[in-house]
């Protein structure tokens, strides 16, 4: 049987291993950590589940196919989750722009479209691009808080070309395994073991050589060292990718009639709240406990507050709700290198991926849009491309 290897047992690596096994390869997965999943996982607590990172998949045809092959019945969002808020003028608002700002945004966007200036310019930041296309109010009160919650970085640090250059509107809502995102990882890992895929945990990799077909599914920093001997320019580009850190704090409270019901609230910078956003977990999916579950998301960037997680949540929650409430349980997860910063470094990486030798491929969140559903689709495409190139058909 043909052999292949995957370096990294996060979601990307596990999905790539499945695709290679489907193609008839004898696959080995090598992982530096002691367990699969990478950033994704679910902690089961007496109060309810706590997600370490993403809380759901975008429900696409690709996602549906993965749920089906793993035998997972998807849990879809509650009706209350349709309400999403951005904080402005001391309260959460479903539409943060004032009437005049909304009119100005529509007029500017219409003119930009008619004059065919909708494409990002070279070197343009997201903040500059959205200001040019839709006006400063749309940039500051709408797009900036929305994107910082996705990309973990301010809009004036994000590259418009990296964020919007290959953008495609995701169709459909979201879905999650009933037991949390960790259930997906557990099912996928168990299914791979049952299919004969071998795993080596606690095994850092310093060098890889060909011609054994290999998928590198690590973060950009680790991938840089592995790729550099075979594609020096790409390796250098990967090494320049900046990584942003996040801390997520899930707190459980006694429910109250005046609790905000909805998906969550995003907080623009300078609004008096340190968090990037808060998710109201028990308003999003069923089965998230009988208590109120909230996940507060904080940046670990230089200059961020160093206060303990409990103090940060307590202070921010008081500003949002006007009251202090002692949590029944609080669980913090710190991820120093959670996400790649989608600046010009991402554009450079994408420009040099074609330099990889035929036996080597990359699969990770530094190659396209961030999101767990995107990672599944990219793993499929990466495995297919690697198989074609390694066999001389690509």
Describe this structure in words.
With 394 residues, the chain is α/β, with parallel strands linked by helices. The model has no long low-confidence stretch (mean pLDDT 92). A hairpin with a 2-residue loop joins β6 (84-88) and β7. It has helices at 11-22, 61-70, 99-114, 126-134, 136-151, 160-164, 181-194, 220-227, 232-239, 281-284, 309-321, 344-352, 372-390; strands at residues 3-7, 26-30, 42-44, 49-51, 57-58, 84-88, 91-93, 174-175, 198-200, 214-216, 243-253, 264-266, 277-280, 292-299, 329-340, 360-362. A seven-stranded mixed sheet has the order 7-6-12-13-14-11-15, with helices on both faces. It has a five-stranded parallel sheet with strand order 9-2-1-10-16, with helices on both faces.
Give the secondary structure arrangement, pairings included.
Blueprint: E1 3-7, H1 11-22, E2 26-30, E3 42-44, E4 49-51, E5 57-58, H2 61-70, E6 84-88, E7 91-93, H3 99-114, H4 126-134, H5 136-151, H6 160-164, E8 174-175, H7 181-194, E9 198-200, E10 214-216, H8 220-227, H9 232-239, E11 243-253, E12 264-266, E13 277-280, H10 281-284, E14 292-299, H11 309-321, E15 329-340, H12 344-352, E16 360-362, H13 372-390
Parallel strand pairs: 1-2, 1-10, 2-9, 6-12, 10-16
Antiparallel strand pairs: 3-4, 5-8, 6-7, 11-14, 11-15, 12-13, 13-14
Helix pairs in contact: 1-7, 1-13, 4-5, 8-9, 9-12
- CATH fold type of the largest domain: FAD/NAD(P)-binding domain
Instruction: Please tell me the CATH architecture of the largest domain by its name.
Output: 3-Layer(bba) Sandwich
- Compute the CA-based radius of gyration: 22 Å
Helical segment count: 13
What is the chain-wise order of helices and strands?
A: EHEEEEHEEHHHHEHEEHHEEEHEHEHEH
Count of domains: 3
Work out the strand percent.
15-25%
Low-confidence stretches: none
Query: Class of the largest domain, according to the CATH hierarchy?
Result: Alpha Beta
Largest sheet: 7 strands, mixed
